[in-house]
Design a protein that fits this description.
Layout: H1 3-21, E1 31-32, E2 59-60, H2 62-75, H3 78-94, E3 109-112, E4 117-120, E5 130-131, H4 139-148, H5 150-159, E6 176-177, H6 194-210, H7 214-226, E7 253-254, H8 256-273, H9 278-297, E8 308-312, E9 318-321, H10 334-348, H11 351-366, H12 371-376, H13 384-400, H14 403-420, E10 435-436, H15 441-456
Antiparallel strand pairs: 1-10, 2-3, 3-4, 5-6, 7-8, 8-9
Helix pairs in contact: 1-15, 2-3, 2-15, 3-4, 4-5, 5-6, 6-7, 6-8, 8-9, 8-10, 10-11, 10-13, 11-13, 13-14, 13-15, 14-15
């Protein structure tokens, strides 16, 4: 498949999305008719591995759209830049004035486009809207929001205090109220996933870099140290710090990818903190090195293409392996972790991380996209899956200059276009008939665009390392 053919599809997508956002002040609806771009008034049934509590029906979710907006800016067409600015400016000025300062985005909340209010898919019976970060908010997006409305960035940083829970000692939770000024009461599980602390640290570091407020610095220090004494001897972190024994998937299990995710966020936060607190930045880097070592110490078997998702604390017994295709809630495909390895490799030059990513890349060469199954059997693979594989192939090509990765990417692009690009907008998953931002078409568009740019020889589109 040629770069020209890829870009043709990308431009069609962006034109359609801009038109779809016009009735909603520039914000992009989450669930659309892929042919007309009109927002679907009736919510389609969820696909296997998807939860209704994560969807944004009748709404817009900026975290879902972030890779698409990044692509629009990189294409450097005035109409695209204007549309992306309109989206983010409207969001910053009109969607962020919540009781806690936390934004309606992420895993369970969104901006309701019809009623112009905070929406929550998790509590459909009139309950409180819930904030959950979902993915890292990248530096470029914080810079844009800060440009349009600096106050909302500082309010969000203050709102992160609501992720601490009521009880003795410090314990955070990945959930928080958006419109209720109250910390949540602790339940049987802590739900303090390590990756989320990295998200919060980076948010806080950006806010602190703008205005050096002591209360923000205190939060950064507290969150930086939170997991350090909870680490295992090898540097791995539990999937959550407190679980009842009956929660078999969580109790006593280390999460290698979450450990690496926190390490990546600490390294990136250290760059923001360096001009203001050299000692804290150094601590962040020291902790990150240990967490990276923890990830690499997990019982992965790269030659056998066995990539560990969960392993028991202490024994290192494998509890769960990563899949190649077909990610579901709570169990991402190996491509996402491999892309994260490339992210951390760029920051550290640790050769074992590049080796890990290459092993996953080889896994996708050995097990190519199951195009026949998606067409004849309706096999439902979320659009994020091939998007992240394209991102991996692109990064491996850019870093190693091995043209076989580029060739693999272009071959995958052909299969992807056959499976997903049957209309103006890509399908949210293979085997369905609607576009849905929650299933990751933004990553698919970004991955295709980056591949096409690299095939042409010059790539202005930076990697997207938010899926961690």
């Amino acid at each position: 498949m040629t770069p020209e053919q890829i870009f043709e599809r990308i431009h069609t997508v962006i034109h359609t999305m801009i038109k779809a956002g016009q009735p909603y002040k520039g914000l992009f609806p989450s669930i659309l008719n892929p042919q007309t771009g009109e927002m679907l008034q009736t919510k389609p049934s969820k696909i296997p591995g998807q939860r209704d509590g994560d969807r944004a029906h009748l709404g817009c979710n900026l975290i879902h759209d972030e890779p698409l907006l990044q692509t629009m800016y990189a294409l450097e067409e005035p109409r695209y830049t204007e549309a992306a600015d309109q989206y983010l400016s409207h969001f910053a000025h009109n969607c962020t004035n919540t009781a806690t300062g936390l934004f309606p985005w992420g895993e369970h909340s969104f901006w309701h486009l019809v009623e112009e209010r905070v929406g929550c898919s998790r509590n459909l019976q009139g309950g409180s809207a819930i904030h959950d970060h979902l993915r890292l908010v990248p530096l470029w997006l914080w810079e844009k929001l800060n440009r349009f409305n600096p106050g909302c960035v500082q309010s969000f940083a203050d709102g992160l205090d609501y992720h601490w829970t009521q009880g003795e000692g410090d314990e955070y939770i990945r959930h928080a109220n958006i419109e209720v000024q109250s910390q949540l009461v602790r339940g049987d599980r802590s739900c303090d996933f390590p990756r989320h602390s990295g998200f919060y640290i980076f948010d806080l570091a950006f806010a602190y870099a703008q205005h050096q407020r002591s209360e923000v610095l205190g939060q950064i220090r507290l969150m930086t140290d939170y997991w350090w004494e909870k680490r295992s001897e090898c540097g791995l972190l539990l999937i959550e710090s407190r679980s009842p024994r009956i929660a078999e998937r969580f109790f006593g299990n280390n999460a290698p990818t979450q450990t690496l995710s926190l390490g990546a966020s600490l390294l990136e936060s250290a760059e923001l903190m360096e001009p203001f607190d050299v000692e804290l930045a150094s601590k962040m880097r020291d902790y990150a090195r240990v967490y990276i070592g923890g990830f690499l110490s997990a019982p992965h078997q790269l030659e056998e293409k066995r990539f560990v998702g969960l392993c028991q604390k202490g024994t290192q017994k494998v509890v769960e392996l990563m899949s190649i295709w077909g990610s579901v809630y709570g169990a991402s495909a190996a491509s996402g972790t491999a892309v994260l390895c490339m992210n951390v490799w760029r920051l550290t030059q640790e050769p074992e991380l590049l080796k890990w990513a290459q092993a996953v890349g080889q896994g996708y060469l050995d097990e190519p996209f199951p195009l026949d199954q998606t067409i004849t059997e309706g096999f439902k693979i979320p659009a994020a899956d091939p998007g992240l594989v394209l991102a991996l192939f692109s990064d491996l090509y850019q870093v190693t200059d091995d043209s076989s990765w580029l060739e693999a990417g272009l071959d995958l692009a052909a299969s992807v276009c056959e499976a997903y690009f049957q209309e103006a907008l890509p399908l949210g998953a293979s085997g369905i008939d609607w576009y849905e931002s929650q299933t990751g078409p933004g990553f698919l568009i970004h991955g295709l665009a980056r591949l096409a740019y690299l095939a042409e020889g010059d790539c202005p589109l930076a990697p997207n390392y938010t899926a961690r």
